[in-house]
Amino acid sequence: MFASISAELRLICVFLVFILACNVNGSDDYRALRKEAEAKLDRLENFLKKADEHGLETGCESVSVSVAKAFLEFAQWDYNNKEKLRDILSEWKKGPKNFDPAKKAEGLAEFELRETIKLLDEVWEKSKNKKDNLWNRRGMKEFNPAKAEIKDGWVKYKGRVVYPYGFNVLQDHWKHNNFETLATLYLDCMGTEKQGRNESIREKFAKGLNQLKSFGLMGDVLIGHHGVPEKAKESNPEIAGEFGHGVGYDIDHPLARGLWKKTLSKVVGITADSENIKLYDIMNEPSWLTAKTKWTDENVQLPSRYTIAGYRSWLKDIYKDISNLNSSWGKDFASFSEIQSFQRTPENKAAWYDWCRYNQIRCTDFFRFMHDEIKQHDPQAKCHVKFINHNVLIGSGGPWSIGKEGIIPARHKGLDREAVMEIMEVNGCDTRITDGGNMILPHPYSDPSEYALNWRAQSMCFDFMKSLQPDKLLYDSEWHSVQTIKYRNQRISPEHMKLSLWLAHMHGMGANITWYWGRKGVSARGGWQGSFYANITTQPRLLYSYLQNMLRLNSYADKVHLFSEQKRPVRILYSNASAIQDTVSCDAAIIAYESLYFSGLPIGFVTEKMLQENALSDCECLIAANTGYVEDETVAAVKKFIDRGGEVVNLGDDTFKFNKRGKKRSLKDYAFIKRCRSFDLKSPKKLAPAMVYLMKKWEISSEFNVEPSGNGSLWGVLCRSVQSDNKSYVLLMNLTKQAKGVSLKRKGKTPASAKEIIEGVKVNPENITLKSRDVLFMEIP
Q1: Which domain of life is it from (predicted)?
Q2: What are the residue boundaries of the structural domains of the chain, listed by start?
Q3: 675 Cα distance to chain centroid
C-alpha cells in the first residue's frame, strides 16, 4: 500500500514538474517578446528625439511610441488575467463554431507583443531610410478641440477645417499623445431623481462634463432612451415597454414629452455654458419596427393606443371622409375608428404607404420636439441623430426585407432621413466599412469577392447625405471600420484602416467616433455582446494606422474636404415612396451608383422633394433607377428637366409606373421616360461601359482619369480630383484585392510630373502601381 502511494506521489510530482516547465517556457516566451519590444521602443524613441531636435517633422511617427507604450501595458494585463480574459471573450455568442475563447485568451498577450514589435520595426525602417523625406512633409496641424466651432458644414479651428476623432469610451488613461480629440458623454434616461442609484443623473452628468473639461476635448452628448422613472411607470404602466430599438417607452404617451422637458431643462442647462459640449445625439440607432420580416419576427413593436389614435386623426386630415379612404384602400370601413396599422400585402399598397408614411411623420415630430427642447436651453447646440446609415438605401438584400414582390420592404421603421436632416444642424450616422463579412448594401448582381473591403455602404450613404445637406457637418459617431457585433477579424491590415479613412473623408466625413475601444484603463472591458474580441485595443498596428492617418488627414484637411464639395454632374433619383413600396428601386440605385463609381465622376442623389423644388442646378444627367412609385409633381419635374436640356437615363422597367399609393399611372403620362436612354437591370460591371460611353457622349467628364498601363482591368480603381491654389490634387485608391497598373491622364494627356504629398516623393504618372488597398494622394502642377 505504501509503495503504491509512493508511486502515485512520484507520478504527481513528475506531472507537476512538467506543467511548471510548460508555464516557465511560456513565461520565457512572453518575457523575451517583452524585452525585445522594450529595446526596440527605446531605439525608436531615442532616434525620433534626435530627429525632432534637428527640426525634422516626426509627429506621426511619434504616435507609434505612444501606441507601443500603451500595448506594453495592455499585454501585461492580458498576460496576468487569462481567466478573466477567457470569460470576457466567451461573451461573443455570434462567432464561428470553432471560436475558442480559452485559446484566444492564452495567446493574446504574445500576439499583441509580436504586433507591437512589428509596428516598431516598420516605423524604424521608414524613419531611418526616409529621414530626408521628413523635411518635405507638411507639419502636423494640431488644434484645440474645445476652441473649435461647427461652421459651414465642417468643424473649424481658427478658420481652417479640422477633423475631430476619437473612440466610444471617455476615460483619462489614454487622452495624451493624440489618442483622441472628441469624446461622448452619455445621458442614460429621462427623469433626474436617484432611481436607486448612488448619484442622480444630473450629478453623474456633471461629473462627466468636468472630466471632459479637464481633458480639453470636444464633447458629444448621447441621449439614451432605455427607460422611464419608476414613479412614472408605477402610475402609468403602459408608458413602459420595448416600443422601438433602444426605446423603452411609448413616444406617443401623453407623459413622455413632459418627462423629457423636465430632464433636459435640468441637464442641458449645465452644458449651455460649456465650451466643450458642441454636439447632442438625440437618439442612438432609432427604429420602430412595425412589420414582420425574416429578421424581425420576434422584434416587432406593435403600435400603442396613442399611436393608433394619432394615425386615425392623420388619416382623417388626409382623406376627410371615410369613403375616400375606402376608395383608395379598397376597404369598407364604417368610420376611421375601425382602422388599425397594416401588414403589407400586394393588394393593399395604399394602406401600407399611409401607415409607413405616418410612422415616419410621428417619429420625425418626436425628433423635432427633442431638438427644440435642447435648443431652448442651449441655443448654440448642434443636434444630430445617429442613424444606421445603410438602412436608407437598403434593397432586397437587407435583413429587414425579403426581396420578393409583395414582401415587406425595409421602410416600416419610422425613419425619414430627408426630413430629419432638414431639422438637425448636423448629419449624424453609424456606418459600416469592414474588411470582410457580408457585403453591406448588396444587390442581386453583387460580386463582393473582387473587393478588398465593404466600401459601398459608406460611399453611397455619405454621398446621399452630402447631396441632400451639403452645408451641414457629416458626423459618424459610431464608425465601424474594425468590427461589428457579428463580424470580427483579429488580423486587420493597417492598409484597410488607411483606405477606409481616406475614402470616408473624400466623401465628406467631418468627424468620427470609432467603434470599439475595448479597455477600461488597461483592463479588458466586458459587455456589448463580447465586443472586446478583435477590437482596436488588441491590434497595435491597426490603432497606429488610425491615429497616424487621422493626423495626416488633419494636416491636409484644407485640400481633402474640397473633394466632397465639388459639383455632382450625375445624380440618382431617390424616391421615399418607391422605397416604401418595393425593394427593386434601391437595388437599381445601388447598381446605377456602382456602374459609374470608378468613372472619375462625383455622383450625387436628388429626392422627389428636391426635384420638385428645382434643386438640380449642378446636375447634367439624372438617373431614374426603377423608381416605380412617385408623385405626379415628380414626373412633371423630370419632363421640365429634359425640356431645358438635361439628360436622363432610365434603368429598369417600372420607372414612374405608379403613384405613391400604388395606383397605376396612364402610360401616356410617363411614356416619355421610355424614350430616354434605357437599360435593363444587370451587373454594374456589365452596365458600366454603356454608362461611361453616354457620359463621354454628353461631355460629362472629370479633369483626371486613369487608363490601364498594361492589359489589366481598371475596375475597382477610384480616381477623384480637385483644384486649389492653381494646382490639381488627385486621389487614387485601389479597392480590389489585386494590384493594379495605371496611367494618370489629364484630359487624355499624361501630366508632365506628379508628387505624392504625404512623403513628398516624385511619382511617374505614366506608370503607377497600386497595391491592394493602396491610397495615393498626389499634387499635380
Answers
A1: Bacteria
A2: 2-135, 145-303+341-564, 570-697, 704-780
A3: 38
CA distances from 347 to 246, 553, 579, 658 (A): 33, 52, 17, 14
Quote the cell numbers at residue 553.
488627414
* Partners of 727 in the β-ladder: 724
3-class DSSP assignment, residue 689: helix
C-alpha cell at 68: 507601443
Beta strands in 441-543 (DSSP E): 473-479, 509-514, 519-520, 523-524
Give domain 145-303+341-564's CATH number out of 3.30.470.10, 3.40.50.720, 3.40.50.1260, 3.20.20.80.
3.20.20.80
Backbone angles phi, psi at 623, to 5 degrees: -105, 115
- CA 513 to CA 510: how far, in whole Å? 11
In the Cβ-directed half-sphere of 325, how many Cα atoms lie within 13 Å?
Answer: 24
Is residue 574 within 8 Å of 586, Cβ to Cβ?
A: no
pTM, entire model: 0.94
d(C-alpha 386, C-alpha 369), whole Å = 16
* 344 within 8 A of 291, measured Cβ to Cβ: yes
d(CA 524, CA 332): 61
- Asked if the 570-697 domain carries CATH number 3.40.50.880, the reply is yes
pLDDT digits (tens, 9 = 90+) for 503-547: 999 999 999 999 999 999 999 999 988 999 999 999 999 999 999
Query: E strands, 387-490, where?
Result: 426-429, 473-479
Q: Which CATH superfamily is domain 704-780 in?
A: Golgi alpha-mannosidase II (2.60.40.1180)
Element (H, E) at 717: strand 717-724
Grid cell in block for residue 395: 434593397
Note the maximum CA span of the chain: 107
Local structure of residue 408 (DSSP, 8 states)? P
Instruction: Dig out the grid coordinates for 374 from the structure.
Output: 435642447
Residue type, 405: E
Amino acid at 414: G
